[in-house]
Amino acid sequence: MEIHQALTRSSIIRNVLPRHEQGGVFAAEGYARASGRPGVCIATSGPGATNLVSGLADALLDSIPVVAITGQVPRRMIGTDAFQETPIVEVTRSITKHNYLVLDVEDIPHIVKEAFFLASSGRPGPVLIDIPKDIQQQLVVPNWNTPIRLPGYVSRLPKSPEFTHLEQIVRLISESKRPVLYVGGGCMNSNEELKQFVELTGIPVATTLMGLGAFPCDDKLSLHMLGMHGTMYANYAVDHSDLLLAFGVRFDDRVTGKIEAFASRAKIVHIDIDSAEIGKNKQPHISVCADVKQALEGMNKILEGKKSKLGIDFSSWRDELSEQKMKHPLSYKTFGEEIPPQYAIQLLDELTEGRAIISTGVGQHQMWAAQFYKYRGPRQWLSSSGLGAMGFGLPAAIGAAVAKPDAIVVDIDGDGSFIMNVQELATIRVENLPIKMMILNNQHLGMVVQWEDRFYKANRAHTYLGNPSNEKDIFPDMVKFAEACGIPAMRVRSKSALRGAIQKMLETPGPFLLDVIVPHQEHVLPMIPSGGAFKDVITESDGRSVN
Q1: Which of 393, 398, 382 is nearest to 421 (CA)?
Q2: Active-site residue 175, yes or no?
Q3: Would you call 21 a catalytic residue per the annotation?
């Protein structure tokens, strides 16, 4: 209470009140992902603090800078099982980059300063500050000039990349015939350097789910996303490459599938800011532990000086991949007036000219949003990638709208994910945030249904979200949820009416919810089964044909 009381006296700190602590931490993540600056959330002790856990784990896995401040019982009562006591430092120790239990009020200035430094330096991540109630109630004249005391941490921060290592990488590029860039979230702050590197080399670019927007998706050298639901041509390129340039990535299982078969023909160069990631899943031939931005700057200088001597020409490789793009484009089928969810996202991309900030929940809609929206720049794509936390989309859009008040912010969500933090509609209304919500509503947990269709003989195991006693009606009614919070909303069922409905959503001032009814039989394709290789890719059929 003391912290919130103090915030009422601040003229520079804006407090956005979420209706649930999980909404608060996801909103802080959305702010950080959209802006590149640390997001901050506050929760009370006990259940308030534990409600932050999913968001902290998500921020750690996706390397998002977040500072979480929690209340705690008075120092003398810690360990006594007091009312609303939870040892949140111990609970979150393995899912934060660092955390603090404040035991002296004089330590608050340097702890806060350190927390923001830790959250945003090196590999970013979440930091938690736990403040007992009696500490909050003390009066103190703060010394804001206390220095940061982190000699061990600072000494372990990556140094500038060695010139000889960068020269080795350039030499490998000049010797290769079929190189591919494999780009992840670690390149979000180096998109300009990445574009220059691609211009100098002509190497095609495949991005991870976290890396979407680091390189423009509409560029002719973009292979778009690779991995389980990546494009055929991105996965083909990696499978047939002789040199894989892995920049700011961690060789996640959803990208690699069967690790032994991933890029099995290629020499691998891995550049990452976190030494723990290098060699963890896939052993590289050359590794550089450094900021990708600095590494790219160094290689660009080498390439600018030596390009004419290196004789780099990958035109035949690019032609081969262009042929793959023609043979295997992302596609979908239409069935009368049913709305293909992929079409809805294509229309949104067209009507926003690919400039919107997109947040998502987790599931099929997330993958379609990754596939069919063409992200032109970094920090347009906000999604729970490593943890896969449903309920992320709506509160993340809140954070993005606060960070970027002039941007178009759209939450592309599924009905299953949306309802997990539906209470944040109230926050959106009260804060008057112009967030657009496009729900791809199939009345099911769509991704689980897809796996049921593929691997469990289409047996439905608690994946229907509607009302079994009245399947013809949409349940629950998302439009009424919005109207209950004073947010305009509408439902669209037919393909021919969709364009006008999306235009109305975008043109309506303030927030708007559009409930798009889509068939539950749709599958996200292509799909490389978990633990599979490129040769195992599934490209055909859906729930209509596999049952």
Answers
A1: 393
A2: no
A3: yes
| pLDDT tens per residue, range 354-413 | 999 999 999 999 999 999 999 999 999 999 999 999 999 999 999 999 999 999 999 999
Q: What is the pLDDT of residues 477-536, one digit of tens each?
A: 999 999 999 999 999 999 999 999 999 999 999 999 999 999 999 999 999 999 999 999
Mind giving me the DSSP string for 151-168?
A: HHHHHHS--PPPHHHHHH
Structure token digits, residue 101: 């239990």
The two three-digit tokens of residue 472, written as one number: 């013809």
Is 192 annotated in the active site?
no
The model carries a pTM of 0.97
CA-to-CA distance for 173 and 142, rounded, in angstroms? 54
Query: Token pair 């423009």 is at which residue?
Result: 216
The amino acid occupying position 143 is N
Per the annotation, the verdict on 133 as an active-site residue is yes
Residue 22: other Cβ atoms inside 10 A:
25
Q: How far apart are CA 435 and CA 407, in angstroms?
A: 10
Sort residue 251 into left (φ over 0), alpha (ψ -120 to 50) or beta.
left
Whether 83 sits among the annotated catalytic residues: the reply is: yes
**Cβ–Cβ < 8 Å for 358, 512:** no
Choose the catalytic residue: 5, 83, 260, 535.
83
